[in-house]
Amino acid sequence: MAFSLVLSLFIISLSGISSVEVQGSPTVDEDLTFLQGDENIDFHQEQIYFRRSLKRQAFLNSQQKKTNHSAKYAVNQFSHLSPKQFKERYLTSWAETAPKFDPSSLEGLFKSNFPPKFDWRDHGVVGAVRNQGACGGCWAFSVVEAIETMCAIEGGKLQQLSVQQVIDCSYENKGCNGGSPVGTLIWLSQTRLKLVSEAEYPFKGVDGMCQIFPQAHAGVALRNSSTYDFSGQEEAMKNALVQWGPLVVIVDAVSWQDYMGGIIQHHCSSHRANHAVLIIGYDTTGEVPYWIVRNSWGTSWGDGGYVYVKLGSDMCGIAESVTAVTVLR
């Protein structure tokens, strides 16, 4: 059912519930026990989760420092899911142990200064936000989007490449049930598999049979990838973004279920990586410096599909598994 229709039905069904009733609603288990035998139990269950999401959003918003920079939490396409359902369906990526970044090993490569604000979108090399739907394929989206942008940075055409190809053919992962971005990039560099266009191998949102293309077929292959732990070194991470290109990162996105804009500064833990995204920029010109992060949950989530995460404190574990890529054209 379309998100807008579900939301409309929920609002109608909740129109008779007072704010006191929402704050004092019974537990989920009590509600579901009461509804046993109801043929509409799934819909009632979603109503319960929706009410609870309103309480959660109110709590998160009440905890924010009242500034224009604060993160905002509100109703979105995930509001009818319980936190457990959200995590099981959408937070399906896992991280590999990354070596600590050693700036001395790259001495002379990094610039001593870099701009206070940088966004790869300003260079015309970032495509439109995509939507993984009900497929837990964030690991594949982040990898493919990084390769798309690097191809454009290195002089190629900015085009949508096939996420479905990676989901179907990367057998060491679990398709729409999860995967490792770092492991996927290692596999792509070892096999030199050429990613074909989205039009040739469209996204279906479910696991499928791997389609094989001739080696001579046009496509984009990965040359190499480098993964580091930048914890405590986000200044160097900014430099990496400018000089190496967009960065694939794996974060703890449990608190992102209700996010609808602003800068995430609280309620986001580290060392619990579960969601892969792509950093495409940063901004340190304001009161709160932040990373600009491209997600794969569509444009109705967050700020047009983007999320802003405070820079400098490993918020959401954003600096713990950071990968840059280079491509062959």
TrEMBL record:
Residues 1-19 form the signal peptide. Keywords: Disulfide bond, Glycoprotein, Hydrolase, Lysosome, Protease, Signal, Thiol protease, Zymogen. InterPro entries: Papain-like_cys_pep_sf, Pept_asp_AS, Pept_cys_AS, Pept_his_AS, Peptidase_C1A, Peptidase_C1A_C, Peptidase_C1A_papain-like. GO terms for molecular function: cysteine-type peptidase activity. Its EC number is 3.4.22.42. GO terms for cellular component: lysosome. Its main location: other. It is an enzyme of class 3 (hydrolase). It is found in: Lysosome. GO terms for biological process: proteolysis. Residues 114-326 form the Peptidase C1A papain C-terminal domain. It catalyses: The recombinant human enzyme hydrolyzes synthetic endopeptidase substrates including Z-Phe-Arg-NHMec and Z-Arg-Arg-NHMec. PANTHER family: CYSTEINE PROTEASE FAMILY C1-RELATED. Proteolytic enzyme possibly involved in normal cellular protein degradation and turnover. Belongs to the peptidase C1 family. This is Cathepsin O. It comes from Danionella cerebrum. The lineage of its organism: Eukaryota, Metazoa, Chordata, Craniata, Vertebrata.
